[in-house]
């Protein structure tokens, strides 16, 4: 150290090393000072970078905090506005409810007043009709009775012809038959109907034929009695089909599947399920499958058993579709049976089967006298006691002053003076008497009846005599009208 410094002093003239007042500085001193400054700058730079990182992190945190605070402020403002709107809506809803309640009370009061006024007007109208036009009420009632009687008579004739075409009865087969079937069966055209939902309870040929007959019979009965039909069907003899209709007013099928009412032949039912016997695209309704009556049915034996274990999936689906078709057909038969029994105010036989009750209904509908008696009892029970007394006083009284001439006068006076009392006479009465006076349709339905000049009503217990008297009165009234116009 000392030798080096000695050499430096001897070699250089440094103002720093030699502590002199000379202006020259050696390079070693310069480098030393530069290294010190460099190290100092590095430490300061590292400290600056650390402080800058801390500052950046603090700024990021502060920015996030500011954003969150601003978001909270905005949310609070929105919540406050929504609360104000909610309070306003609640006030409006409460006001609306109060308004609706007030309107409901007003409407209720008005409806009560209208009901009272309507009842009063109806009472006044009935009193005026009974006071001024007593024969008009009798004429309308008698006309309704005559039209109903004629309609029921024609309906019974049609139903009787249908029953002759498709005889439906219940038989009992005693002993063991060759085909292995015995016991009680419902038959149509001597073809046995299945028991319950088992399609194998009867031979396949009789099954297809009987279900086809039932489909056609049901279609004819529905059209005749104007009853509800729960199904649509494609009648094709022993290859008929059935499907569920969408509603009572819409006859379109409710689903894409239609059910057969027959057991398909083996030729048309392979195990692969590639046949189209159940598809709705087939338009021949299975007629092409009726090649021979002696072909074997699909996995069905003459003993009426069905082997579920050995049956193929397609055979099982065939069996299920056939059961669904039978169930839908029976449901539709039960519906039309209940409808007709209710219209006649009769109870459906509880002990009878579906087809047996249907056959009893057809027997009742085919009897004109029985149906007329039931309808007469229904009309008598529906009429109130006061109306019945007035009706008996005005119609069934032996010494009544109502004659054929007064009936004719009441029938003629209505179209002539309609403008005078249009508000007092119902439109249905006017239309009935207008048709009675303008057209002679009633005369065509009552040929062969004797006309009595001054007829008196018989006791109401004799239904046939009442009908005879009613028709005679109408003939006399219409002839009087025609003569007066001429």
From TrEMBL:
Q: Where are the transmembrane segments?
A: none
Does Ribonucleoprotein appear among the keywords?
no
Q: Which GO terms describe its molecular function?
A: SNARE binding
Coiled-coil ranges (or none): 27-61
Biological process terms from the Gene Ontology for this record are: SNARE complex assembly
User: Which GO CC annotations does the UniProt entry carry?
Assistant: endosome; lytic vacuole; protein-containing complex
**Is Coiled coil found in the keyword set?**
yes
> Which UniProt keyword terms apply here?
Coiled coil
**PANTHER family linked:** UV RADIATION RESISTANCE-ASSOCIATED GENE PROTEIN (PTHR15157:SF5)
Q: What is this protein called?
A: OLC1v1017513C2
């Amino acid at each position: 150290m000392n030798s080096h410094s000695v050499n430096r002093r001897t070699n250089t003239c440094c103002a720093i090393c030699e502590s002199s007042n000379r202006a020259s500085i050696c390079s070693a001193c310069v480098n030393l000072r530069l290294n010190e400054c460099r190290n100092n700058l590095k430490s300061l730079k590292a400290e600056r970078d650390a402080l800058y990182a801390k500052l950046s992190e603090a700024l990021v945190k502060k920015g996030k905090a500011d954003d969150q605070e601003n978001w909270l402020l905005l949310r609070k403002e929105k919540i406050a506005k929504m609360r104000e709107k909610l309070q306003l809506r609640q006030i409006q809803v409460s006001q609306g409810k109060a308004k609706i309640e007030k309107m409901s009370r007003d409407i209720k009061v008005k409806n009560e007043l209208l009901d009272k006024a309507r009842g009063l007007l109806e009472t006044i109208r009935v009193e005026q009709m009974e006071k001024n036009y007593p024969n008009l009420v009798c004429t309308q009632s008698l006309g309704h009775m005559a039209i109903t009687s004629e309609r029921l008579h024609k309906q019974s004739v049609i139903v009787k012809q249908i029953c002759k075409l498709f005889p439906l009865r219940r038989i009992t087969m005693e002993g063991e038959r060759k085909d292995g079937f015995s016991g009680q069966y419902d038959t149509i055209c001597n073809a046995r109907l299945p028991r319950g939902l088992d399609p194998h309870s009867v031979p396949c040929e009789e099954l297809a034929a009987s279900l086809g007959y039932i489909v056609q019979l049901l279609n004819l009965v529905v059209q005749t009695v104007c009853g509800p039909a729960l199904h649509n069907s494609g009648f094709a003899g022993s290859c008929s089909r059935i499907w569920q209709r969408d509603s009572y007013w819409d006859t379109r099928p409710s689903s894409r599947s239609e059910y057969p009412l027959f057991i398909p032949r083996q030729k048309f039912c392979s195990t692969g399920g590639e046949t189209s016997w159940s598809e709705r695209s087939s338009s021949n309704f299975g007629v092409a499958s009726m090649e021979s009556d002696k072909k074997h049915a699909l996995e069905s034996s003459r003993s009426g058993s069905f082997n579920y274990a050995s049956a193929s999936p397609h055979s099982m689906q065939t069996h299920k579709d056939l059961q669904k078709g039978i169930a839908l057909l029976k449901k539709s038969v039960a519906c039309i049976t209940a409808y007709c029994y209710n219209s006649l105010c009769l109870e459906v036989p509880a002990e009878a089967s579906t087809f047996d009750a249907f056959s009893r209904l057809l027997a009742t509908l085919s009897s004109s006298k029985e149906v007329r008696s039931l309808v007469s009892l229904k009309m008598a029970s529906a009429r109130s006691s006061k109306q019945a007394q007035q009706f008996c006083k005005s119609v069934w009284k032996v010494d009544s002053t109502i004659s054929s001439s007064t009936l004719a006068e009441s029938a003629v006076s209505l179209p002539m003076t309609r403008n005078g009392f249009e508000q007092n006479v119902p439109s249905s009465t006017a239309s009935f008497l207008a048709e009675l006076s303008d057209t002679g349709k009633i005369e065509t339905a009552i040929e062969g009846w004797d006309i009595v000049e001054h007829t008196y009503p018989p006791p109401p217990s004799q239904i046939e005599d009442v009908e005879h008297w009613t028709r005679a009165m109408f003939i006399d009234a219409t002839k009087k009208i025609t003569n007066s116009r001429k």
